[in-house]
Write a structure and sequence with these properties.
The protein contains 15 helices and 13 strands. By secondary structure, the chain is α/β, with parallel strands linked by helices. It has 2 domains: about 230 residues, Rossmann fold, CATH 3.40.50; about 100 residues, Rhodanese-like domain (Oxidized Rhodanese, domain 1, 3-Layer(aba) Sandwich).
């Protein structure tokens, strides 16, 4: 790669890194990245990718800038409220680095356009803030083979991971086989978020993207990095590919993109309505009383392994929701009471319905899940 004198100055701090150098800067110039969402996570990620000299950057976002964005979406200014985000991003990134090609897609990512968009880029950054888009991005990744750097934030916490199933990593469905029930996980508007936390996570996403494009270091594929701002701590959890995964397992059933709004909403709402009619609930205090009395029962935690590592109720046994149907035969059929538990009670209600359909009758759902357990029984159990 031949650098102009201006580029040699612009990228001087890259060129002095032996892991980057002139050859690495050439890789970045020849690379392309698509960012899904130009919001809180996309803002810092896009700024750093453009500043780093990534040759072609695409942005897909159908939103306009709103005043409430400005607390964390650092790509925008007050006088740009009301403008299409893609237009503002194109202008601001071009001003930052005119040597980078900025491609804008002023629309939302959908099942109709995802695969065509993915095919145009080397890497995708998922900065979306809703479950339908995350499942859509994951399935499009598996079907297209284009790797994904994904970030998520909530209140004072965030997480980053890399999905690259063609190299053996899990996909999003491996970690979350089914979406949470509507209302189980509050969105940013409902729960709030510290703006600087979004910046940290977005910058980590940009770092993972640059590592991938430069082919240096150890990517977060097969791992999830969790950041807690209040304790100033980072924890890394191993993520394993699920051979029974509907998208990337040994016998996948997801062979085309689907209606993700329906997948994440309507079906769960119907399921929730059906199960609540016949579901018996138990409070954390009642569960603790049963434990103290030495009652015979089985406590099944249906969360994911990485959640189980963060916090667990003593005596619980982990069987993720995505595996509950397959492993139902492993559970006692002698009438032993089975108490099901998750983070807040929604996923365990779904698991209860599955076991009901298998003929189990002595079932109870832990009301409020491990969050309620932490609030009313044992505050030392971390809330996440």
């Amino acid at each position: 790669m031949l650098l102009s004198s201006a580029d040699a100055v612009r990228y001087a701090r890259h060129l002095t890194l032996s892991e980057v150098g002139v050859a690495g800067q050439g890789k970045l110039r020849n690379a392309s990245v698509l960012c899904v969402g130009a919001g809180g996570l996309g803002s810092p990620a896009l700024l750093y990718l453009a500043a780093a000299g990534v040759g072609r950057i695409g942005i897909v976002d159908g939103d306009a800038v709103s005043l409430s964005n400005l607390q964390r979406q650092i790509l925008y200014a007050t006088n740009e409220v009301g403008a299409a985000k893609t237009n503002v991003v194109r202008e601001n990134l071009a001003a930052l680095n005119p040597g980078v090609t900025i491609e804008t897609h002023p629309e939302y990512l959908t099942s109709a356009n995802a695969l065509a968009l993915f095919a145009r880029y080397d890497l995708v950054l998922d900065g979306s803030d809703n479950f339908p888009t995350r499942y859509l991005v994951s399935d499009a990744h598996v079907l297209s083979g284009v790797p994904v750097v994904q970030g998520a934030v909530n209140r004072f916490e965030g997480q980053v991971t890399v999905f690259d199933t063609r190299r053996g990593s899990p996909c999003y469905r491996c970690v979350f086989p089914v979406p949470p029930a509507p209302g189980e996980v509050p969105n940013c508007a409902e729960a709030g978020v510290l703006g600087a936390v979004v910046g940290v996570v977005g910058t980590l996403m940009a770092t993972e993207a640059l590592k991938y494009l430069l082919q240096i270091g150890e990517p977060l594929a097969g791992k999830l990095l969790h950041y807690d701002a209040l304790s100033t701590s980072f924890r890394t959890f191993a993520l394993k590919r699920n051979t029974h995964c509907a998208a990337c397992g040994d016998a996948p059933t997801v062979i085309e993109l689907i209606d993700y709004e329906k997948f994440c909403g309507a079906n769960d709402a119907v399921q929730s309505e059906r199960t609540t009619q016949t579901m018996r609930e138990i409070t954390p205090l009642e569960l603790k009383a049963k434990q103290d009395a030495g009652d015979k029962f089985l406590l099944i935690d249906v969360r994911e392994p990485y959640e189980y590592e963060i916090a667990r109720i003593p005596g619980s046994q982990l069987i993720p929701l995505g595996e509950i149907e397959r492993r139902a035969d492993d559970l006692p059929d002698d009438g032993t009471e089975i108490v099901l538990q998750c983070r807040s009670g929604a996923r365990s209600a779904q698991a209860l319905a599955v076991l009901q359909s298998k003929g189990f009758t002595n079932l109870a759902n832990l009301k409020g899940g491990i969050l309620a357990w932490s609030d009313t029984v044992d505050p030392s159990v971390p809330k996440y």
